[in-house]
Amino acid sequence: MAKLKVALYWAASCGGCDIGFLEIGEKLLKLIEVADVVFWPVAMDVKYKDVEAMPDRSIDVCIFNGAIRSSEQEHLAKILREKSKVMIAYGACAYGGGIPGLANMYNREMIMERAYLETPSTINPGKIMPQTSYQSPEGELTLPKLFDTVKTLSQTVKVEYIIPGCPPEERTTWMALEALIEGKLPPVGTVITDNIKAVCDDCPRKRDVKKVKKFYRTYEIISDPEICLLEQGIICAGIATRGGCGSPCPQANMPCTGCYGPVNDVIDQGAHFMNAVASVIDSNEPEEIEKILEDVRDPAGTFYRYNLPDSILRRARV
């Protein structure tokens, strides 16, 4: 029986998803028994020309992590789509845009100026900026073009399945790999987790439907380990986030930040999250509500941390 052919690639991401993939531990041996990894630039010496030369649909599954924010990433996403029978968006960045997607609060010029001219650690008196093409004595040197808008993988190519998380939990990763190995993949379009309800469904903390007069950052309060964090004024995205992770963050006394994406039938996770937060505010007075909400220091990063490109907003007008 021929082995499965698997490809892995990272685009705009931090590298955590590749580490998360290795969290399956000794189960890697079971995967290697039935599958060959034919493309994984972060772990093996392969060139883009190698995958470009592969026959179309010769790869059984491509596990693609990271958002799309450059011409190089878009090119590889399209090439891997052509070569793969199944494309999996692996992790929050491929799924919803992730942390890189918060760049959509700005435009390309603002980002480049900040990175290369304005940061306190930058010394650039000549105000030299990266160029997509430069003619050197050795020949033309090129860099990928940075896009003005960060995109999700599914906004770039067709995606069959999603494995959520930042990074995905070991159990979620293996659930997908096991389905692949056994030939029992779920219906196309499935977000693969072991719980379709919210993180709150996994969380052991008690909800007493308490209202709050003030929101706190995690270092500003010693929370009760038994009571729902949101009802103690700590903004927790568990109520608006798909479960399956096992709620490790709330159990470690840290709020859920929303990395598993929206619960079923929710189009915009950020809007759903805002509605949940509004429901615990103990006031009907507009001025008092506005003052309470001033404690939310970074609304975009709080409510759209992992999915701004995939939201109704998608990006700011700048």
Give a short synopsis of this structure.
Helices cover 28% and strands 14% of the residues.
Explained architecture:
- The chain is of the alpha/beta class.
- It folds into 3 domains: 4-99 and 150-181, Rossmann fold; 110-147, no CATH class; 199-303, no CATH class.
- 28% of the residues lie in helices and 14% in strands.
- The chain is built from 11 helices and 9 strands.
- A 5-stranded parallel sheet has the order 2-1-3-5-9, sandwiched between helices. It has a two-stranded antiparallel ribbon with strand order 4-8.
- The radius of gyration is 22 Å and the shape is globular.
Topology diagram in text:
Layout (H helix, E strand, L loop, with lengths): L3 E7 L5 H7 L4 H8 E5 L8 H5 L6 E7 L2 E3 H13 E7 L1 H5 L11 H11 L14 E4 L2 E4 L3 E6 L9 E3 L6 H12 L66 H4 L17 H10 L7 H8 L5 H5 L15
Parallel strand pairs: 1-2, 1-3, 3-5, 5-9
Antiparallel strand pairs: 4-8, 6-7
Summed over residues and divided by their number, the pLDDT gives a mean of: 94
At the fourth CATH level, what is the homologous superfamily of the largest domain? NADH:ubiquinone oxidoreductase-like, 20kDa subunit
Determine the N-to-C terminus distance: 55 Å
List the quaternary state of the chains.
single chain
Tell me which CATH architecture of the largest domain applies here: 3-Layer(aba) Sandwich
Largest sheet: 5 strands, parallel
Element order: H for helix, E for strand: EHHEHEEHEHHEEEEHHHHH
CATH topology title of the largest domain = Rossmann fold
* The level-1 CATH class of the largest domain: Alpha Beta
What is the gyration radius calculated from CA atoms?
22 Å
Query: Judging from the principal axes of the Cα atoms, what is the shape?
Result: globular
Return the domain count.
Answer: 3
- Low-pLDDT stretches: none
Strand content: 5-15%
What is the helix fraction of residues, given as a range?
Answer: 25-40%
